[in-house]
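Discussion board: Methods & Data

I've been asked by a reviewer to show the raw model output for two of the constructs in my manuscript, not just the figures. I'm not sure how much to include, so I'm pasting the format here to get opinions. Each protein appears as its amino acid sequence followed by a line of discrete structure tokens. Is this the kind of thing reviewers expect to see in a supplement, or should I convert it first? Here is construct A:
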Amino acid sequence: MEINDLTPAERRLWRAFATGTTVDFREAPDEAVSPDWGLERTVRARVLRALLLDGPHRPGEVAALKLMGARITGELDLRYATVDSVVRLNHCHFDAVPRLAGAHLNYLNLRDCVLPGLAAARSRIDGSLRLTRCRIGGPVHLGGAQISGALFLERAELSTADPSSAVLALNQVTIDDDLCARGMRAHGAVRLDGATVAGSIDLEDAELSNPGGFVLAAEALDVGANLLGRRMRARGRIDLRGSRVPGRVDLLGTSLSNPGGTALRASSCVIGEIWLREGTRIEGRLNLRRASVGQLQLEPEMLPDQVRLLDLTYTFLTPHEPAERRLPMLERDDGAFDPHAYEQLTAAYRRIGDDRAARVVQLAKPCRHRSTLSWYGRVWGHLQDAAVGYGFRPLRAAVWLLSLLAVGSVAYAGHHPPALKAGEAPPFHPVFYTLDLLLPVISFGQESAFAPTGWYQTLSYVLIVTGWILATTVAAGVTRTVSRQ
């Protein structure tokens, strides 16, 4: 391109390129970007392309494209091009979507720009990509891109007129540093399926909105450090299935809402810590099935009506709450009974030395299982629960035993049962006789020597049956305790 073909604004930029000098058309630092800027602030996209591919160079200087406050007309087409110069276009208005698919760039800074979209799939950027505070009215395609530095999207506003298209497509992207999107507002789906981020993903104070659809689709996401989402507001589905986050998934103070669907799915994930506290109650399902978590920080107040925990494993559960506040979450998995969930909660309490809470959870396990049995199984379960709490309430067994011993002793003291063989019967003792009826494995020689009649015989049968219930339930509880040890 000849310099004589350029407008005054373009000639100024052409001369500045060789030395990397910034050309600033703004009248004030806080001037709003406008599509109505005149010819004196307009630069054609093909001029930018000519500069980046074959612009003037000056010995001893580093050529760079640094432009601020300009309207860029036409389509900036750098598909599969190699650009060695730094590209910094700030506070600019693009009339057309920049086409950067497959391009190899040194550094790209589009801070504070207004764009109708960005097409940069499979591009390679040796430095960072900065889209800070950009307003982008169409899809941003970065799928398969390789970014050696960081990706900056702080306080960016992303939207698209096509609800079926992702507003930010980062599928299979590779970022060697952080993905910084603090305060970003995205009206549509953000896709991170199969992405690799060596550092952290920062979504603190972000607003993600796509009611009824995905707001963050990140299956098989691989994060090197943390996924930060404090005070994030998400209206739609977050899907982290199969992801790996060795640090923490920090959702303190978040608002997650997807009524009628799944609000957060982190199934089959491997996560160091999940922080789900200090936020509003989740609207929609919480799915943590088959996930492996080191520390699960979970406030009962944030849990929704449906919580799926099948095969979830965790080492620590914080903050410390009474078992009675933790148990309801185990009963919200679509009515299913998951014994593993009770064992996990029991182990978490034992790990911190709260044996009382562990016993409460262990008692709740057979009580919950009872609801899945046939009617006669439920009857027997109620008897075991009332008698000795399935073996986890030994004091209750002692109270029952002493109470029945007192009733039997008083009853038989007032009416001695007749001896079966008068000459061979030992002296009758009401306490030992009652103990003979209650304790099936101990004999004092009384039960076989005397035969009560009338209602005393009925009382004997009741004591025998009750004794067997107490004995079998206590034995089952002891067996469970020994097997756990």
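Construct B, same format:
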Amino acid sequence: MANFSKSNVPQFSVDVYQNEYLPEGGREVNAIVTVTATGGGTIGSAVTAPHLYSPGEGPSAAVVLMVDCSGSMDYPPTKMRNARDATAAAIDALRDGVRFAVVGGTHLAREVYPGDGTLAVADAATREQARQALRKLSAGGGTAIGTWLRLADRLLASADVAIRHGILLTDGRNEHESPQDLKAALDACAGRFTCDARGVGTDWEVKEVTAVASALLGTADIVADPAGLAADFTQMMETAMGKEVADVSLRLWTPVGTTVRFVKQVAPTVEELTGRRIEAGPRAGDYPLGSWGDESRDYHVCVEVPPANIGQEMLAARLSLVIPQPDSSVQNLGAQGLVRAVWTDDMASSTSINPQVAHYTGQAELAQVIQQGLDLRKEGDIDGATAKLGRAVQLASASGNADTAKLLAKVVDVVDAATGTVRLKAKVEEADEMTLETRSTKTVRVKK
């Protein structure tokens, strides 16, 4: 394993976009915060990522692959074969030195490789051993996703590494444990590792798969055709191998009298972070942002400030990026942004909405109305579903979210995108509806 220097670590920057002007008595301050990490290496390359905490001290990452082995994976039989091949492809994408394990998931969780309660260290020999072990995977049993996650957590916790990541594949509903059991497992694993979740076929529950990705700050998607699993797993693993800094948090400090209304990620996906705040001293709180490679993400911060008179101004919030340490201290990543409030009687200034704020407010609404529309459609409320999905078409069109617009067009007939006039399609392919629901939170950035 190579020795690393701090110069390998990505450099973080924070940019704040807002209209700082408020009318007399105005209290709500909105800002879009762009966090960017650059210069740490190339995602998907064979470059060895640095161990942020102790450069040169062993492997920097650990990954556990959780493969659904329930009985339904045999229908059709090609599904299990595709899952084995996809897992093998992901293992091939591991960097040398990364620790890894494979878990077979049914109503129980079983270590498939290496099988001794530890993690293997990736090299040519262990990759081949893992491929041999995968050939013995067979389908049979139920589905208890929380059990798989808890085993992955135990395995990942055994490694002294910076990056801990899981990849989870399921083809069915979580029928062999209660929703409360899954929620408890997610709560227990949150902040301990990140996890990408995938549903293969169309017999799984979208809200279960997206809940895993949301709680564990990963991605969720559908692979409707099992033949597409290998390419998707390879891409997921390459992205995971590009992560170089773990456990980044957005620290938000606000002055006396200021209330945080919400903090949410708005690009590349919508993710609510408000309830994940961890108190960090007087008037400060940390919001977890997960693991980072070379990438950029956008966040919407909304605070309520005390009312003030014309001509007054104040610092409404100060943002910084930190990595909490085991001893309760933090490592500051050296990036900071300020959110300001200035009270004015200039009507044009105080009523102008910042383009980034307006755009992402629409994107968050887009994700919400798609979910609401699909839920109403399942409940048989045709009028309600038509209204919500029509609004979704209107928002997707206005914001230039072409990918979501295409997915919507498979569920509704678009009469007029600009006004949101649509008709529900009489017959919708289940895969199309599930794809729209799974990808509803994906956003586009502001058009230049």
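Answer (T.O., handling editor elsewhere):
This is acceptable in a supplement if you add a one-line summary per construct. For B, something like: The CA atoms of residues 20 and 341 lie 5 Å apart.
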